Every structure is written in C-alpha cells, then in structure tokens.
Predict the 3D structure of the following.
Amino acid sequence: MDFPQVSNSNVEALLNKAEIVRQTAEQIMKDFGMFGVEISFSGDVHQAYGELHHQLVDQISRLIETNYDLLLSVLYQVDITEREMAKAQAELPQYTHIEVIAHQVIARDLKKVLLRRYFKMKDATDRFNDNELMA
C-alpha cells in the first residue's frame, strides 16, 4: 500500500471515508482543544470539509483579533510551515488568507490521520509476513 499524496487540490476528495473523516475531525478538535479553542463536528461525512472549514475560519479570525500568540501556538501544534502556507496561498487564489490557514489545518491533520493509518496497516502487514515466514 502506497501512502496517498495529499495536495491542496485533493483534500476534499481524500475525506471520502467516514472513518478518515471522523479521525481527521477528532485530530482537529484535539489540536485546537489543547488550547481551549472549541471545534465540533456533527458527524455529517458529506459536509465535513465545509463544516470544519467554516468553524476554523471563524475561530482563526477570532484568534487573530483577540490572541494572535495563541493562534501561533495552535498552528505550531498542528505543524503548519510558512512554506506550506505560501504554496497553498498560490494554489488556492480564491481563498482569503484566513481560509487558506483553515484549509491547511484540515490538510495537515488529514495527513496525520493518513500517516497513522498507513503505518498501522504496514505494521500489520509486516507482522503477518513475519508470521508467514516463521510458519
């Protein structure tokens, strides 16, 4: 199994399985919740990107106005680089700067989820192959 490539143009398409969507939403809620910023998810898989994006835009806007240092801490926790932000801004010209930040949060947390799933599957496959060799 190859690790799926996440790009700015395919984030919504990769959020196509209920379990991946749920895990991504949970990761976003966890990352923001660590700093007392509430993000919720209704569970509607088909509206997940829009729902999460809208909430993130609202929360990021509020943090820019009230506590910019806290926003920087959250973005550091999520692990978004300036380089990724610049690339996303160029690839998503229809988005405002705040919308790009929200998109990058979703994309980065989706990558975290996919990476964990990939290595869990790889580990399980490796253990299966090791057991087959020993049999």
